[in-house]
């Protein structure tokens, strides 16, 4: 297997275009790898590095189909070509199925080419053919060849290289970003002690998620564009490009983008929760300061200050001091108005965190990918979703009630304020409570919307399972009809009338089979559409389509043969009956010789036909 190299590491070498994957394919759908040798000496080390890099790109499935390698030796010497072919044996022996060496028109010196590749086939592990450029189309369709071999496939090496660089940069950044975000999000689920430890640690990821997502989206739309516009200006060349699904770029980018979006959303929520936590902690600290002061120094001060002064000046001084304490009180009191309420409203805070947890649970369920095994599993999941939604509803209701209690307490708040006017401060608190409630309401709304989407997806999955099941059923029915045709539809009738009835029956029987086959095809079409809508690339109709087509082919061959035999039988009976009708007594004397011969020929033909099986075992 070939290690995943990075293009940036060998960029100057890749720019030389010592080898390339144009995106063309041979007749077995294997990729075509081109090695355009040039007049100056090619460094085998650089060529080997290029090949290593290129072979790290296609999927395993794709490599398993084998490569066709075109070695363009038109501008090169024979010994270099020979070295390259022998080198292929070390770099990619198992994956090469054919090597086409394109030879120059004036051909190399006969003496050197007697090194015969075909003798070497066992040692090399692949077949090598020498071919002139204009004969290449015997092995590869022109639309799969680039223009230097007279084909119509468009390939732009620099464009390909730039796309690879963007793709690798995005893959690298998004993968490392995903790890970091997942780490941060997982940590958030841990115990309180872990949270306290990690809140000190930096939670900023090393790449900016917005930028990485942006790059990914741009890359994806570039790749999709290439797919749709590939054929323009290519002289009708295929719309396939070497960055297409086959070489894994597009699905991989989509998958990375999806995971990244999901983790980034969770990460944003984690950040919001953290900032809320730190605000609450700050408020608690302030409240404790006030409480400690009131219990300690404050009480002490009031207890010790009983003196009323022994002169006007002393009294005035004490009065002033008392007022200072009082004003200090009310400043602290005003400042701590909200925190005191927060202590009062512990119940509400509890409620809020419960509501948050419920929502997080629901959100987690919605973000998790779902691949249920069957209809029953889906029903189960749907039921689960509805329950979660109900509990969120309940939590929100209880939050509303607690909030209301808190708002009522606010209106009787003046007792805390040492007679100062706190209406301004109060207004802020009331607004804050309202905004928290609204925020929760909105979050619930968002979850509900997501539940609707998920519900729809689930119902589509139910449909998908049903279609798949029914398509399989159609194949079975068709198999049963074929069976009946082979085993029980054998009689050809004893006279023309009976044969005619059998022909009619056969026609109806074929109609039934035809509609069964069409039904199966429609169901499979529906599963394709549903799979696209559900974006579930992993599912495919499996072997149902080939099975359907195979049974149908066997059925049509068999039913055509049956039709033919019945028609021959009908012709035979009709001819025979005609002779018997015209001359029952004087058969020997009067009969028309030609009519006799016709009956005989048809009869013999039918007998010959009946010695052959209706359908050969391989269908």
TrEMBL record:
Gene: LOC107562705
Keyword Repeat among record annotations: yes
Disordered: annotated span: 183-207
Family named by the database record: Belongs to the SOLO family.
Any one GO molecular-function label of the UniProt entry: phosphatidylinositol-5-phosphate binding
PANTHER family for this protein: SEC14 DOMAIN AND SPECTRIN REPEAT-CONTAINING PROTEIN 1
Domain of life: Eukaryota
Biased composition (Basic and acidic residues): 186-199
Pfam families registered for this protein in UniProt: CRAL_TRIO_2 (PF13716), Spectrin_SESTD1 (PF24915)
Keywords annotated in UniProt: Repeat
Segments forming domain CRAL-TRIO: 1-157
Organism: Sinocyclocheilus grahami
Gene3D superfamilies found in the cross-reference section: 1.20.58.60
UniProt-listed PROSITE patterns: CRAL_TRIO
Protein known as: CRAL-TRIO domain-containing protein
Lineage of origin: Eukaryota, Metazoa, Chordata, Craniata, Vertebrata
